[in-house]
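Protein modeling request. Please complete all fields; requests missing the sequence field cannot be processed.
Requester role: graduate student
Desired output: 3D structure, token encoding
Chains: 1
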Amino acid sequence: MNPIKLNTQLTNAFFNETIYNQLSVKLPLCHQMLLSGTGKGNEFTGWTNIPDFMPDSLINDIIEKSNELKRISETVVVIGIGGSYLGAKAIIEALKPSFPEKEKHTEVLFAGFNLSEDYHAELLEYLNKRDYSLVVISKSGTTTEPAIAFRLLFKHLIEKYGESNIQKRVICITDVAKGALRKMVNKYGFSSFVIPDNIGGRFSVLTAVGLLPVAIAGFDIKLLLQGATDMMNNYKQHFTDSNYIINDFALHRLSLERQGYYIELFATYQPRLFYFMEWLKQLLGESEGKEGKGLYPSSVVFTTDLHSLGQYIQEGKRIMFEIVLHVTKPLKNLNIPLFENDDDDLNYLAGKNIGHVNDNAMKATQMAHIEGNVPNIEMTIPELSEYYLGQMIYMFEVVCAISGYLNDINPFNQPGVEAYKKNMFKLLGKPGL
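Delivered output (433 residues):
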């Protein structure tokens, strides 16, 4: 299979070799800390070795449980927030048809990732008409957003099916021994999967956290894991190579940050990658934004956002660089028709496929943005498939960890996330505060 490639040549005009070389000297130590588990946050680096946490027996169990839910459900609602839903959402949205036929795919919906009263009320109304089951994902079982959603949906499930008929309609993914959800598993006899103690939420997409929803949606998790495993093996073989894709990417993005480009703008011309970029924003923002350091991850979908944010990118403050996620092979081909009268003056494009126009729009935008002093990095992805998504996930996780170590921060904690929670609990009158 063709590899994912990185083109950093478009940054040459903005490249500071001195900064790049200074970071390069530090890079081998960062790899050593990650692979040997000796760096900051090393207790959460279990994701680096896929076979350790995803043996074949567990993969087969996930597939079996997903098939059981699909047999009894038109819809499965996945309850979670942050890393407990974004990874699965990213993969499903990248792979599913834009206009899916419900009879061909079990519908996967998400809840508990916001506190919108309207959203959850409308979800309950919708589920009145659907045969559904629940997958609830939370290490503690008490995170506010998913805990409220689960309380609402669990009550609705009992009212719809009766308490004696819900055992097979709930799967919990949680701590191995403790927490609110583990108590529910023990009380009701629900099936469950474990969130590994040595893998943090935003790095958990290749565990049952992400794999069960993806399997329920009808996609091949073995192929997803094969892509990730191939990238893992490739990384462990080539991380000492100076021009290796992970090294080149980590060094370029940190070099640009040191030069005052503080916004990392992910761009794609494939709308299916919208939620993949949302996952990237959580992975990178929560991992790297500490101690006054870190790039600010943002995202755009072109050409749509060229008609809204394009002006700012072209001529606004010069504080951003662009990473273009370029999918080279479309899933379908669609040619532009010939109009005899050519009223819209588009016959010069007749017979060409829309992907050809899209690719040239990308090239034209890159040319314009470089002329506007926006550095560009292009990542070429051969196609949107389970295999290549698995490769991308593992690659970005490593880049994220290495970039954190290059910046002398712990990429695996998130102390700042607790600030709003403390204030919210006080305002809500939570006991004990």
